[in-house]
TrEMBL record:
Protein name: Antibiotic biosynthesis monooxygenase
Assigned keywords, A-Z: Monooxygenase, Oxidoreductase
Entry keyword Oxidoreductase: yes
Taxonomic source organism: Paractinoplanes hotanensis
InterPro entries reported in the protein's UniProt record: ABM_dom (IPR007138), Dimeric_a/b-barrel (IPR011008)
Pfam family, one: ABM
Record domain ABM: where: 2-91
One Gene Ontology molecular-function label: monooxygenase activity
Database matches in Gene3D superfamilies: 3.30.70.100
Amino acid sequence: MFALVVRFDCRDEAAAARFDELTVSAVRQIGEREPGTLVYATSVVDGEPLARVFYEVYRDRDAFEAHENAEHVRRFHELKNPLLTATRVEFLEPGPAVQR
């Protein structure tokens, strides 16, 4: 398993709205085209309306690399990057967990 959390900070409300539109399309395509992507969950940060957090879990590093190189993901990055003031990526090492 390979996992990461990504935080995106949008420029303003208009940028956040456009980011959300792009996210809907990207998540749909990820679900349809990426069997190695096990979880791709997106959230708005409570109390920070311009911040978004993605939690991503892949079967393995190869599945992550396939995700990053997919045309729909490269296009998402290209379109979203001008909307942002910051991006923070944290790669995760699995620890104790409960899964139901």
